[in-house]
Design a protein that fits this description.
Largest sheet: 8 strands, mixed
Low-confidence stretches: 1-16, 18-23
CATH class: Alpha Beta
Order of helices and strands: EEEHEEEEHEEE
Number of domains: 1
Strand content: 35-45%
CATH architecture: Roll
Mean pLDDT: 77
Number of strands: 10
């Protein structure tokens, strides 16, 4: 079994049975009481100038399409409990290098309100997407594209 010595705060360790566990130094921020906890990274989105070629590539690797396809502007593949998304290059947010990280939260609207209250300027207000998520977009100070989302319940909302 590995030990914690020399690992940065937040590092994850592999235990005796192969399960990942948090380093004991990982803790929830005390500066964000009452804010929806960030649960996971749900998806990574890559841009592509040729959706058909990219879809065929990932399908050839064994990825299963959850939404979209070769002729769509946006395609999502299931990866465990998360997703690998492809967005047509014309939809690429400026300055992000074409990558977006999507964090799942319990309450998108509460996270949006918290971001605004902290003086941040999300690019979008929370909205429901046709692919079955409620989300909003935000760019960090270094230009990294972030989204905060949650799946919509069956029947909407």
């Amino acid at each position: 079994m590995q030990h914690d010595r020399g690992l940065p705060a937040g590092a994850r360790l592999k235990g005796e049975r192969g399960q990942w566990r948090r380093s004991p130094s990982v803790r929830r921020s005390t500066g964000c009481t009452g804010v929806s906890e960030i649960r996971s990274i749900n998806a990574v989105t890559f841009t592509t100038p040729d959706m058909a070629r990219a879809v065929r590539f990932y399908e050839a690797l064994g990825f299963s399409i959850a939404y979209g396809g070769e002729t769509d502007a946006f395609t999502s593949f299931r990866v465990g409990e998360g997703s690998l998304n492809l967005a047509r290059a014309g939809a690429k947010p400026p300055g992000t290098g074409g990558v977006r990280v999507i964090f799942y939260v319990d309450d998108v609207d509460a996270m949006y309100a918290h971001a605004v209250a902290q003086g941040l300027a999300p690019e979008t207000s929370p909205r429901d997407a046709e692919w079955g998520e409620r989300f909003f977009h935000l760019t960090d100070p270094d230009g990294h594209a972030l989204s905060f989302a949650r799946p919509l319940r069956a029947g909407g909302g």
